[in-house]
Every structure is written in structure tokens, then in C-alpha cells.
User: Fold this.
Amino acid sequence: MSTKVVEARSVTRRFGSFTAVDEVTMDVAPGEVVGLLGANGAGKTTLMRMLLGLLPTTEGTVLMLGGPPRRERRRRLGYVPQNLGLYRDLTLTENLAFVADAYGTPVPALPDDLSRYADVLVADIPLGAQRQGAFVAALSHEPEAVLLDEPTSGVDALARATLWDTIREQADRGVGVLITTHYMQEAQQCDRLLLMSQGRLVAQGSEADIVGSTRALVVRTDDWAAAFSALNDAGAAVILDGRTVRVADAGRDEIARILGAAHVDASVEPVPATIEERMLVLAHQAR
Amino acid sequence: MTYGLTSVDVSFGDVRALHDVTVEIPAGQVVAIVGGDGAGKTTLLRTLVREVAPDAGHVHAPSKAEIGFLPASTGSWAALSVTQNLNFAGGVYGVRGAALDERRTALLATAGLSAAADRLASRLSGGMRRKLGVCMAIVHRPRLLVLDEPSTGVDPVSRVDLWRMLSEAAAAGSAVVMSTTYLDEAERAGHLVVLDAGHVLVQGSYDEVRAGFPGTVTRTGSAVRPGWSWRRGRERHEYWPDGDAPPRLPVVEPDLEDIVIALSLARRADAGARA
Assistant:
């Protein structure tokens, strides 16, 4: 089956004079985990709401499972919003019963590690277990596409790995997954990445494709504080990294000159940028 | 000057929140406390700022007036503007007049909030609100800066702004401690402390943590011992605490994510064996 589970063709969304999403073309294929990245205000949530059929496009076309986003197709989608969408004053079992009733499906069984929370109010369950419960609720009707908004925010590394087991199981079953994240290590677990900035899709593909030609400089010195202060005062896009200092998208000679003027003894070495630094450079260009 | 906790135990009723926790927070350094929901991060930080009294152990911290604290809740007043919030925080700590004006202007510029100075805090994005909270916590140049999850749910670009602010504070000589659920952020700190169920799993610089990690991590399609394995992308990683991995399995250089998961599994196995 080659039909994309969700697809946007030259999609634009305006709110008054503000363009939130600007001619975006993208898709998610069955069995694929696609990561959607971007700073706040980049247009990720607006795009996701259009893909879910919750918001009409101003221009362009959204296709859901090969057709326009209508009610009968929408029920073949699963969605976990950032705030989880669970009722906090109901138990986990009651939440699942409610969802099952809405979809007309049997109440799903809880995985072993969640069973002890079956009759506990969602508000009283640890966040990692709440997130796992939200996954169970969103997947109970066996959707063909799943959209996840920051699915692992706030949980520990072990709980995050457990959630990713579920995400990968879905993809292996042929479900197409679109996921937003602010955690770059998590982005590296996706099959493909999309980067949005100012409403536009500015890069897509592997991590290397996202970073593109953006370079960073690593400044090594015995006195990180002096190096940091000198570069920060000069307005460089400086990031502390352990006891070294990184600068995104700056000329080596310029950085060496600033450090020299401040009498900081340091080596300056160009390295490939991180995804985060690429986003930082985009944000600076937009300011 | 070094602040911190020595051999601290904290309980809430029957629940033991911190077990024998020792953490040093030296002036001029950023220390990251990393762990998930329920690990004990908030309790550790609240003990340090003396909002929670320990059952045992010692707390080394300056007086309240020399501490800056950003709690996990917002840390600003929704009905006040950005400027009013900062003026209020300054007033509480005795920063007033021209000194306050100068400090406020500089802080808002670093935080990227200058254009939002007159906006109500309730109208800020989540990232902007956390940055305002940090501005309010550092307005009086505290000796000890304590930030409870300043970056959770904050987008990567705002996180860089946040890091610039706390790096500035450390570069100016403050002792800075922050909690986070993002391991890449912990890697960036000079010293990191990994908490799991109230226990310190490991601490040190990232290099020290890597060098001191016992055992081996292997890469595999399907795990030999599922209870000792976890998901990494399309593969699974598996931990061999005694380094006795079967030779056919490829060994990986563990990153902080692997190290934290491996040590969490080992601690749970250990606790299970003792129970």
C-alpha cells in the first residue's frame, strides 16, 4: 500500500494577516516515524491541527489516508496531545472505557506495568504512567496513523525508552507516526525529520540533512567563564558545553579576534553543528 | 565557596524521598540534577533552599536573601506585566531605582524578552514565561541560584537563551544548580547528578561519569535478557553489569542516555534482590 497516511500539499494557513503555515508540502508513509521539529511559533501545532482535520487550510490540500479529512477517516487516526487528553478526575480504566465507548471498540487491556494503576485517578498516577496510559487510549482503536505532540516530555530515560517501544511496535505494524519533540536525542530516533521555521518547511531528511552546511566552533580553554563572557558580550550565539564553549554560525577569525582582544588563551576548532544549533541560526536570521 | 547537601535523608510520611544524598555545588559552576518525574529532584532543591527540613544530614546554603529560586510552578505573576514582575522581584531583594532599571534592561535583553516588556505574564509563551522566571530569580545576583526544571517543555531556541542566562550567572561567580529531564542538557553542565527514586545513581562531569561506568552495553535486534534491554531507534541496547556479554554481540560506546538507563535497571534489580 503506497497511500500516505497523512499528506499536506502546498498548505498555507493564515490567521488575519499572520501566516502560521506557509506553503508546506510533506507526508508520512505507512510504517514510518517522522519527527517534526521547530522552535515555538514555527507552525508545528497549526500544521498538526490541519493534518488532524481540526483546522481548515487557507490554501492547499490536506489528505488523510488518501482522502479529505472527514469524520469517517478521522476515526482511523490516533492522537496524543501534549496535555495527554485524559480526564484527571477519572481512573485510568474509566478513561479507557470512555474512549472505547466513543470509538465503539472493546475496552483495551492494560499492559502489565500499568495494571496497578487501573483504579487510580489519573491525577494521582506518576507522569510516565500517565503518558503510557494516554498511548493505550489513543491506540485502542488500532489507528492507521498516529500523531504525537511531545509524547515523552518530563519522563525519565527508562520510561521514555518504554514509550518508544510502543511507537516502534506501531510503526512495525505499518502505522505511520508523526511526532513533535523538543528533545534532540529523541529526534535522532526518528526515521526522517522535518524542520519548520517561521511557518515554512526549511529542511527535511536525516540529521545531516537538517544540519546542512551549518557549522559550529568549539572553543577549548582553561577559563571557560572568561571565554563565555567575552563571546557573549560580543553578541555571539554562544552555548556552554561542559567546560568548553560552542559558537554557532560564526567565522573562526572573528571568534579568535574577540578572544584575543579579551586576552583569553583558547583553541578554536570548526565542527559540524547540532540540530539545535541549526535551529538557533534560523531563529537569529528571523529576529 | 561550595554549597550543597551532605548525607541528606528526607521523608514525607512513609515515603522516603531522598536517601543519603550528597551533592556539592561550587561557586562558578553549573550543576545539573537529572531524573524523571518522582526521582526526587524537586525535594532535593527545596531542601537546599530550606523549604523542606531533612530528617538527617546537613544543608550548606547562604541566607535566603542570597539565594535565587525558581520553583517548578511558573515563578511569575500572571496578572502583572514582564516589567512589573521584575520590578516586584527586585523590590523584594532590595534592588531599586537606577540599579534595578539597568539590571532589568540587561536581563530582558539576554532573555530575548525586551520586545515583550509590557506584556502580561499570562500572555507569554511557556518558554518566555520560564525565561522571565529565571530573570526574577537572578535579579539580585544571588550567590546560590536554584532552578527547578527551567527548561521542561521549552523549545530548543529558548533553552539556549536559558542556558546563556545561567552560564552568565556562573561566569559571574554564582553557584548554579538546575534540575532537568533532558539528558543532553545534563551533558552540558560542568557537573551532573543522576537521581533515581531518591538515590544518587552517579555524579561527576560527563567525562567522569563515562569513565566510571561499569560493565558493557551491546547492540542487538532482539535482546538476550529483555529485562536488561531498552529501545534505541530501530535497535535495542542491552546492559551487562559484569562485562560478560557474549562475544558475538557488538559493543557500543554508551552515551548518557544508555548510562542512565543501565544504572536505573541495575539499581532496580538490586532493590528487587534485597526485597
